[in-house]
Amino acid sequence: MNAAETERYARHILLKEIGGPGQQRLRKATVAIVGMGGLGAPAALYLAAAGVGRLRLIDHDTVALSNLQRQVLYKSAEVGAVKVERAANALKALNPHVEIEAVAAQFPPSGGNTLLAGADIVLDGTDDFATRFAVNAACHALGITLISGAVGRWEGQVGTFKSGLTKHLPPEQRLPCYRCLVPDIPPDAETCAQVGIVGALTGVIGAMMALEAVKGVAQAGDSLAGRVLLYDGLSASSRTMVLKPDPHCAVCA
What we know:
Structural class: alpha/beta
Strand order of the largest sheet: 3-2-1-4-5-6-7-8
Radius of gyration: 17 Å
Helix content: 25-40%
Order of helices and strands: HHHEHEHEHEHEEHHHHEE
CATH topology: Rossmann fold
CATH architecture: 3-Layer(aba) Sandwich
Distance between the termini: 43 Å
Largest sheet: 8 strands, mixed
Low-confidence stretches: none
Mean pLDDT: 96
CATH superfamily: NAD(P)-binding Rossmann-like Domain
Number of helices: 11
CATH class: Alpha Beta
C-alpha cells in the first residue's frame, strides 16, 4: 500500500482483527455483487470504502424514480441510466484505488458461473427467488462463499452460505446452501414492489452484508455460516436462526 492508502484505511489497520495483513487481503480480493438495488447499493459503498481491490457489479436494470427512496448510490438526474455504469462512476469517485467491473447483464437461470468466476465472495441482493437460486447454484459449483440478503416491509435477513467450500467434506461437516433455507419458490412470494419497503432497512441489511464480506476476506471474527440473522426494524429486534444442511437439498445434498 502507498501512503495515501495507508492513511485512508488507518482505522481498519488499528483493529487487531484486521491490521495490515487483513487490509492487504481486502486489497487483493474480488467481490461480486449481484443486484445493484436497495441491498447492493449500500453494500457496494461500504466495500469500496473498505478497500476491496476489485468489485464486480452485475445488474441489467436502469435507475427508476421509485428506486431513489432506498438506493442511495443513485441521483435524480440518473433516472433511466444503466445502474452498473452509474454505480461504477460513484464508487470510483469514492475510492480511486478500487477497480470496478460493470457487468450490465441479467444473471441467467443457468450458466452463470462465468459471471462469478474468480470472485472470492459473492453478495446476492436480488429480489426474486429464481435469480437467488441461480446465484446459489453457481456459488456452490464454484466453491465461493455466498452472502445473501433479503428485505420486505420492515423486516430483513442476512445469511452466509459456504456449502461450496465444504461439499467435499463428510456430511456431518458440511455447511448449508441457500436452498437449504428456501427449498422451493414460495407460492406466496412477494417483492418490495408488491408489499413496500422502508428505505433505511435496506441500508441496515446491505451494510450487514458488507460487514460479513469484510470479515470473511480479512479473516476476522465469526461468520453467519450455518446461521441466518433475522432483523425486525419495526420492533427494533433481531434473532439468529441455526440452519443445518438439508439432506434432500436439490443443490448441496
